[in-house]
Amino acid sequence: MNIMLFHSTYGRRPAVRAAADRLRAAGHEVWTPDLFAGRTFETVEEGMACKDEIGKDELLKRAVLAAAPYSERGLVYAGFSLGASIAQTLALGDEKARGLLLLHGTSDIAPGVSVDGLPVQLHVAEPDPFETDDWLSAWYLQLGRAGADVEVYRYAGAGHLYTDPGLPDYDEEAAEATWRVALGFLGAL
């Protein structure tokens, strides 16, 4: 499978490269574009300031430019938190998308979006301050109405970005469970 993996608001940290290596070891081809041009951050506030400085439109432009050379192959879009929201936006706009793997994040769904059976898998903490229960319920229903085949996995007690061992949110048990399920999902596409 060809996977375009987008980083979180912390930037392309070692955990993103480790995730890409894990996916490659499972036989996938993976690209990890650096939307922050080499900048990484120690706090979510610093990363959000960078995101705001760059702007949403520019980030999406960078993501589209990174994915465009490979989209004819049929990409699985994936991402962590902010990167998940970017992956979702791209996957819902790419008729050749093969799947969508969301780790720790979702995004708004544009009105009138239609995807024919797009496989979508979301892994998120429970509770998650950025992905509230009400938001996730509405997101799930909207994506289902758009035609996606959606699976949601919740991890009680884990922090928001629980798959990154370099962050305080890290939860080894939840992270390993996430990767087991996600690799199964990708292997079945």
Strand order of the largest sheet: 2-1-3-4-5-6
**Tally of distinct domains:** 1
**In the CATH hierarchy, what is the superfamily?**
Alpha/Beta hydrolase fold, catalytic domain
Q: How would you sum up the global shape?
A: globular
Distance between the termini: 8 Å
Under the CATH scheme, the architecture is 3-Layer(aba) Sandwich
Write down the overall mean pLDDT.
Answer: 96
In short:
This protein has 189 residues and is of the alpha/beta class.
Word description of this protein:
Helix content is 41%, strand content 19%. The protein has helices at residues 14-25, 44-54, 56-67, 82-93, 133-145, 172-188, and strands spanning 2-6, 29-31, 75-80, 99-103, 119-126, 149-156. Helix 3 (56-67) packs across helix 4. It is an alpha/beta fold and 189 residues long. The termini are close together. It has a six-stranded parallel sheet, sandwiched between helices. It has one domain (2-188): Rossmann fold (3-Layer(aba) Sandwich).
